């Protein structure tokens, strides 16, 4: 395997929708599971930490960057195929690096219903499985029939019911929390045919709702916080008087359009500015409501403490 698969000192801001963060000491975009395994072995041999990145649409990357190897599962691993099953449903197989919106649009093109919500989510299929991404009542778990992943030693296949899906969590997220390796390589989804006009109308309706309510033209990582049980994060933030709030002119701001999004105006804020604002919001909301918001955004690299 060529060592030139690995680049050094690669700026990561362009690989995160927050548009901030420092460089990766090492960076690679593998093309298949063989290269993923090779990269892990390379890092293990050198005692180097690994971070698996998708489209970086749910990550805040530290200003110091990541002092290890970032393995980006992107377009090199973005195959897409489908086949009709005997029962008339369709099985769609997507590489982990395929944009989730591309998967959603493909389902629309094929008149498959259930994945309309995916058309508006800016991550990869791997990131969507890891996070059990969802919107407008739909969740990734609704149609996943199988996931293939690399566990650090071998390629494993697990069916949908074994994926431990919950609100913004999965088996893979849990393994990651436990410090174990689980690189999602591929997902299979089973969906049923529906009425194409209705599917298109629903997709367009969801897109319009998203455009009307979310700051899609400003860098962010989507909803900064998870939905606390029995509450809505955006409502709690608004009630604490923080909609549109900024601590300073760094560019980090609670979106004036959607209080659940912390945004990076002009992409000029540092990750530390964004993080200071997130911490401030957590404290103020707690003071105001007694509810402690939990970050949905994942931190990459060192933020101190
Ligand atoms: C404008 C905007 C709107 C959004 N709207 C929504 C929404 O409606 N619903 C929603 O759920 N989310 C939403 N998000 C958040 C985000 O798009 C999702 O969480 C998405 O699933 C993340 O995918 P990603 O590829 O970008 O993952 P990344 O941000 O790159 O990574 C997220 C986590 O997944 C892990 N990961 C990624 N790929 C793999 C892989 N192949 N194997 C193992 N681990 C992996 C990473 O290590 C990391 O811990 C939004 C974000 C933005 C910017």
Could you give a quick summary of the protein structure above?
The chain is α+β, with helices and mostly antiparallel strands. It contains seven helices and 16 strands.
Question: What are the main properties of this structure?
Answer:
6-stranded antiparallel beta sheet, 3 domains, Uridine Diphospho-n-acetylenolpyruvylglucosamine Reductase, domain 1, alpha+beta, 27% helix, single chain, Uridine Diphospho-n-acetylenolpyruvylglucosamine Reductase, domain 3, 305 residues, Uridine Diphospho-n-acetylenolpyruvylglucosamine Reductase, domain 2
User: What level of helicity do the residues show?
Assistant: 25-40%
Q: How many alpha or pi helices? A: 7
Q: Which fold name is given in CATH as the topology of the largest domain?
A: Uridine Diphospho-n-acetylenolpyruvylglucosamine Reductase, domain 3
Number of domains: 3
CATH architecture of the largest domain: 2-Layer Sandwich
Radius of gyration, in angstroms, nearest whole number: 19 Å
Task: Please state the structural category.
Answer: alpha+beta
Largest sheet: 6 strands, antiparallel
Q: Return the string of H and E elements.
A: EEHEEEEEHEHEEEEHEHHEEHE
Inertia-based shape: globular
Number of strands: 16
């Amino acid at each position: 395997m060529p060592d030139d698969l690995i680049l050094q000192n690669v700026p990561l801001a362009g690989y995160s929708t927050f548009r901030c963060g420092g460089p990766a000491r090492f960076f690679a975009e593998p093309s298949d599971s063989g290269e993923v395994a090779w990269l892990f072995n390379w890092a293990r041999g050198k005692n180097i930490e690994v971070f698996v990145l998708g489209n970086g649409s749910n990550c805040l990357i530290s200003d110091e960057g990541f002092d290890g190897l970032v393995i980006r599962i992107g377009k090199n691993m973005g195959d897409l195929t489908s086949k009709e099953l005997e029962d008339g449903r369709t099985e769609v197989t997507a590489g982990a690096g395929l944009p989730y919106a591309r998967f959603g649009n493909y389902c629309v093109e094929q008149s498959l219903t259930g994945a309309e919500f995916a058309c508006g989510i800016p991550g990869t299929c791997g990131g969507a499985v890891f996070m059990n991404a969802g919107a407008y009542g739909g969740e990734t778990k609704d149609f996943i029939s199988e996931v293939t992943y690399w566990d650090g030693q071998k390629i494993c296949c697990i069916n949908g019911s074994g994926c431990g899906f919950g609100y913004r969590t999965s088996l893979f997220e849990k393994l990651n929390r436990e410090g174990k390796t689980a690189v999602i390589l591929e997902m299979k989804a089973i969906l049923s045919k529906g009425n194409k006009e209705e599917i298109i109308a629903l997709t367009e309706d969801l897109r319009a709702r998203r455009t009307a309510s979310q700051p899609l033209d400003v860098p962010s990582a989507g909803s900064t916080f998870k939905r606390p049980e029995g509450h809505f994060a955006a409502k709690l933030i608004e009630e604490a008087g923080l909609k549109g709030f900024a601590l300073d002119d760094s560019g980090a701001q609670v979106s004036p359009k959607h209080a659940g999004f912390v945004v990076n105006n002009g992409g000029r804020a540092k990750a530390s500015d964004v993080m200071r604002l997130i911490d401030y919001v957590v404290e103020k909301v707690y003071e105001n409501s007694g509810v402690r918001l939990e970050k949905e955004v994942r931190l990459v690299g060192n933020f101190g403490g």
